[in-house]
Amino acid sequence: MNAVFTSFEKFLFSTITGNQDGSSKSLEVVCRIAPKNGKESCVSLVDDRNVKVIAPMNYVTRNNDAFVEKLFKFDCVFDENDTQRDIFRRCSLDFVENLINGNDSLLFTYGVTGSGKTFTMTGNAESDNSGLLPRTLDVIFRSLPNIMEKCIFKPNGRNGFAIQTEEKAQLERQTIPLPSYSIAKRLVETVATKSLNNSRCCAVFISYIEIYNDMCYDLLDENLTDERLFTSKNIRIDSVTRKAYVEKIKEIEVESCDEAIEQFLQAQERRKIAKTLLNKSSSRSHSIFIIRLVSASLHKGKYYPDSTKNDIHIAEMTLVDLAGSEPY
Ligand SMILES: Nc1ncnc2c1ncn2[C@@H]1O[C@H](COP(=O)(O)OP(=O)(O)OP(=O)(O)O)[C@@H](O)[C@H]1O
What PROSITE patterns does this protein map onto (predicted)? Predict the structure, then answer.
């Protein structure tokens, strides 16, 4: 099997109920067959759930045994006729709803080098080929009412958040740079999903890390390309929540989809520079993009979160583009 096979798997960490078939599934494995582009392929689509692996032309086994065709069953199979939009709507849209409902999800792409993992996850933000990540951000921001001004929710660096006073938030807001945009136009995912309860307010934070040779790098750190290039981050476990977190990484608050995509694109540039400087291969690194939705009840009669209620809720959606697996 060679470079024509991409599978990406869906993990839902929290129990999710109400799948279309009425079941409550916590894991789905979905397969996308990359375009053949004139090349020979030994993977063939049987139907929307089954894939057959057939013998490549001139295939000879070691003992001249006959090649045994194998059938693989998935939760869903896409082929080259399926678009980025089709993949998003089948594989990621329910995760956005899951996030808005306050649950965590993990989605990752897995496959051999060149099989289309990055194309599926990212695609091209400026064309109709935009992938799961920009589309996910589009729908998230379309589904959120009451997005607070920046710096009201404050990350504690260990997966937790606090509500700052109006004075502190305002002072801190003056110190953060205004977002800049390099994309002139973008095709936007127009589908809608269930919206957050109107009595709550929220903020969205992103972080983006790369794991290469067991080292963890912060791709949102603008200094990654110089002196901090060789400084990796530590992964720790919070003693109270028992959840893992990466120490001292940037969690950037974003107010719009365009702002989040801009941060992502700048991080991609950093990743390319670091790759050249360290002479590393991008296909051997994992990249992990985390979207955190922090919400709390709105204050009665005031457009501000109510800190007395102590009901901050954090939900996260993680999108992972895994390193290319070895072809065999
Ligand atoms: N479904 C598809 N439709 C159109 N082009 C595709 C598709 N899948 C992959 N490609 C193209 O194939 C090439 C390789 O894809 P991509 O870089 O996404 O592979 P990858 O699995 O991420 O590889 P690596 O593991 O080396 O990072 C790219 O030029 C991409 O645009």
Answer: KINESIN_MOTOR_1, KINESIN_MOTOR_2
